[in-house]
C-alpha cells in the first residue's frame, strides 16, 4: 500500500507540478 501511495504522489507531482499538487492529493 505504501508503494502505491508513493507512486500516486510521484504521478501527481509529475503531471500537475509542485504548485497544483496539494489540490489533487485528496482522493485517498
Describe this structure in words.
By secondary structure, the chain is mainly α. It has one domain (1-28). The chain is built from 1 helix and no strands. The protein has one helix at 2-20. The N and C termini lie close together (11 Å).
Task: Describe the SSE topology.
Elements: H1 2-20
What would the keywords be for this entry?
28 residues, mainly alpha, 1 helix, 68% helix
Q: What percent of the residues sit in helical stretches (DSSP H or I)? A: 55-70%
The fraction of residues assigned to DSSP E strands is under 5%
Task: State the total count of DSSP E strands.
Answer: 0
* Overall geometry: elongated
Global structural class: mainly alpha
Low-confidence stretches: none
User: Helix tally?
Assistant: 1
Any idea how many domains?
1
- Rg, Å, rounded: 9 Å
The assembly state of the depicted protein chains is single chain
Largest sheet: none
Q: State the order of secondary-structure elements, H for helix, E for strand.
A: H
Mean pLDDT: 72
C-alpha termini separation: 11 Å
Amino acid at each position: 500500500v505504501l508503494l502505491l501511495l508513493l507512486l500516486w504522489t510521484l504521478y501527481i507531482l509529475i503531471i500537475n507540478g509542485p504548485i497544483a499538487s496539494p489540490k489533487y492529493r485528496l482522493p485517498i
